[in-house]
Amino acid sequence: VVFLVAGSTSSGKSTLLNALLGAPILPASHRATTSVFCEVTYSGDGSSYAMLHFEGGKARETKRVDLTSKRGQDKFRKFVSSSKYDEPSELEKQRCVKAEIFWPLDFLKGM
After folding, report:
1. 19-56 CB burial, b ≥16 within 10 A, e <16
2. Of 18, 26, 53, 67, whose CB has the highest number of CB atoms within 10 Å?
3. Who's near 11: CB < 8 A, 6+ residues apart?
4. Which element (helix H / strand E) includes 14?
5. Is 86 left (phi over 0), alpha (psi -120 to 50) or beta?
6. pLDDT digits 0-9 by tens, 27-51
7. End-to-end Cα distance, the chain
8. CA 67, CA 86: separation in Å to the nearest integer?
């Protein structure tokens, strides 16, 4: 089973996904906030994490971000947010093009 959450800018897509996940994982605001295609998948091992896929710079890179802590969730939101960085690192200068969120919720099994 696959379902798509789509809508116009600031229509509540991230807020809906955060409610389904039971945690404020995606950035949400009354203005355009999430700028990356996000895919939510069942985490069979019980862990909560994201795999961020980057393009640009010297090569394509993938970064794992632990989502079990507030610090990790803040870091994730920074990468998928449409806001600009203060002092970007080399990885942040690359463009995050996709985020895979792995979350241990039963209703995600089979998706």
Report:
1. eebeeebbbbeeeebbebebebeebeeeebbbebbbee
2. 26
3. none
4. helix 13-21
5. alpha
6. 888 777 777 889 999 999 999 999 9
7. 5
8. 22
Tally of residues, the chain: 111
**Span 47-88, pLDDT tens digits:** 999 999 988 766 678 999 999 999 999 989 988 887 654 445
CA–CA gap between residue 67 and residue 69 (Å, rounded): 6
Assigned token pair, 40: 């939510």
Q: Say what the alpha-carbon torsion angle 108, 45, 68, 56 is, to the nearest 10 degrees.
A: -80
Measured torsion, CA atoms of residues 65, 31, 104, 52, in degrees rounded to the nearest 10? -30
Question: What tokens appear for 46 in the block?
Answer: 């019980």
